[in-house]
Write a structure and sequence with these properties.
single chain, alpha/beta, DNA Methylphosphotriester Repair Domain, 15 helices, flat
């Protein structure tokens, strides 16, 4: 976990040497180092036997190291894409095969397209995506259902067209997969009652919406009208109604939480997502205000260290701003990666938290 001021930059040789000694993966791609006694150059995270400081030189690129007469290490392969990227590409090929297939390919077929052994493939697939191939296929079929429901002749037709062998199996998990009963989803949320209110906070316009279970949306933007349209697009047939006096109190709590992030937000949340998304969102809620995590840190925290891209996708899918604080996740180098409600709002939220933390 990092505060906003203690992120590594690796600008001096002392910082680079410390990164090499720690095998710090955050330095990979920032610089490379060569070892005079072996004639090779490596990534900072290379697991090879530690070199002596007097034999080490630092380089800004692979080309720089090779021009100085060093050859790439065979262990960390510094002149190739990082291992995580190669694994992600391999698993990506398997995911495309699953998405294009009517039935789940066998584990052997998936391992073959990924060019990995059967056992290693299964382990890496779960690490990268956060799901087993079987669960990924189920989630993909669920996505097909949600795409087909609005235009399908019936819910049953949409379920079978998406590749589910029985409607019973889909209905068993429907609420967790699409957030509500499939008939309601197909009708644009018909029968769902959603209270909402719009207002202004220090970050601009804000919309808070809730079902009978709790807050289901906190949206930020430049114009209140656009936020209302966003909510209507999500649930075009739901009964959207203005909040009564008690809901105005919820609005006030949320706006106060945006401006004073150190105070608790004691409101129930109606959080809807896949099992993996729920794990990520819970981990986000455990990040203390005034601190940040990288996507890599967050993936490790939920027990899926290779699922960095899946973690980033779960952060992007969050629709409850601030209360589920995806703004506290940054890139490995500390840069403010994309934020659904704008980088400037992310920067402002983090700055508010830093100020609040410093005045405690």
């Amino acid at each position: 976990m990092n505060t906003l001021t203690d992120l590594p930059v690796f600008t001096t040789d002392d910082e680079r040497w410390a990164a090499v000694q720690a095998r710090d993966g955050r330095a990979d791609g920032v610089f490379w180092y060569s070892v005079a006694s072996t004639g090779v150059y490596c990534r900072p995270s290379c697991p090879s036997r530690p070199a002596k400081r007097q034999n080490v030189r630092f380089h800004a690129s692979c080309a720089d190291a090779e021009a100085a007469g060093f050859r790439p290490c065979k262990r960390c392969k510094p002149n190739e894409a990082p291992l995580a990227e190669r694994q992600a590409a391999a698993i990506g090929r398997a995911c495309r095969l699953i998405e294009a297939s009517e039935t789940l390919p066998t584990l052997d077929e998936l391992a073959e397209v990924a060019e990995l052994s059967r056992f290693y493939f299964h382990r890496i697939f779960k690490a990268v995506t956060g799901l087993t191939p079987k669960d990924y296929a189920a989630a993909n079929r669920a996505r097909r259902v949600t795409d087909a429901l609005p235009a399908s002749e019936s819910v049953t037709a949409a379920i079978y067209d998406a590749g589910f062998n029985s409607s019973g199996r889909f209905y068993a998990d429907a609420t967790g997969l699409i957030g509500m009963a499939p008939a309601k989803y197909r009708s644009g949320g018909r029968g769902e009652v959603i209270r909402f209110g719009v207002g202004q906070c220090s970050l601009g316009a804000i919309l808070v919406a809730a079902t009978d279970k709790g807050v289901c949306c906190i949206l930020l933007g430049d114009e209140a009208e656009a936020l209302v349209h966003d909510l209507q697009d999500r649930f075009p047939q739901a009964q959207l109604t203005g909040g009564e006096a008690d809901f105005e109190q919820w609005m006030a709590q949320v706006i106060g939480f945006v401006d004073l992030p150190m105070q608790p937000l004691n409101l129930p949340l109606d959080v809807r997502g896949t099992a993996f998304q729920l794990r990520v969102w819970q981990a986000l809620r455990d990040i203390p205000a005034g601190t940040t995590l990288s996507y890599t840190d967050l993936a490790e925290r939920i027990g899926s260290p290779k699922a960095v891209r899946a973690v980033a996708a779960a952060c992007a899918a969050n629709k409850i701003a601030v209360a589920i604080p995806c703004h506290r996740v940054v890139r490995n180098d500390g840069a403010l990666a994309g934020y659904r409600w704008g980088i400037e709002r992310k920067r402002s939220l983090l700055a508010l938290e830093q100020v609040a933390e410093s005045t405690k």
